[in-house]
Amino acid sequence: MTAKKTARRSAGLLLFRTGSGHGLEVLLGHMGGPFWTGREEAAWSVPKGEYAPDEEPEAAARREFEEEFGHRAPDGAWVALGEARQPSGKTVTVWALEGDADPATAVPGTFAMEWPRKSGTLREFPEMDRFAWCTPEEAAVRLVKGQRVFVDRLRRHLAGGALSAGGDG
Fold first, then answer.
1. Half-sphere exposure of 169 (CA within 13 A, CB side)
2. pLDDT tens-digit profile of 82-130?
């Protein structure tokens, strides 16, 4: 008998600001590593990461923000944006938090992978190689497709609309 495969789950934190003179902006990270080099469209992400079944998703979101951005998340009230199933089959849960941070001060964590493939050489790459504040319109182009729903949900929340408990839209 084979063991049941555990569903992959990630949690993340979408930092946003509204007082910068540009209206709503969200902090996104460009995914690091050789697969994303030179790509802008659909190559950015909410700071997030996988977590084990015994870890609370909120704790994972806080940990991943700190690992990927290199600074603790600011204090403030977290807004649950629900979850969305990604094209990969992974389920991502995201919270929004109003705050400010300077993308230039990011100190991203790293990961190791064999590169070039089948070379036997392990190289380290930043999990996210840069961060930027983006308007919702910019985020709609930059974010990977499965995460765009979270910006839409944040906009609905800020406009006074109700958020669904989860699902894909």
1. 0
2. 999 999 999 999 999 999 999 999 999 999 999 989 999 999 999 999 9
Torsion (CA) 36, 40, 41, 44 in degrees, nearest 10: 70
Over the stretch 12-46, which tens digit does the pLDDT of each residue have?
999 999 976 779 999 999 999 999 999 999 999 99
Q: Over 114-165, what HEC string results?
A: ECCCCCCCEEEEECEEEEEEECHHHHHHHECHHHHHHHHHHHHHHCCCCCCC
Token pair of 135, please?
A: 């308007």
Write phi, then psi, for 84 (nearest 5 degrees). Answer: -150, 135
Whether residue 108 has a cis bond before it, omega within 30° of 0: no
Tokens of 56: 């609370």
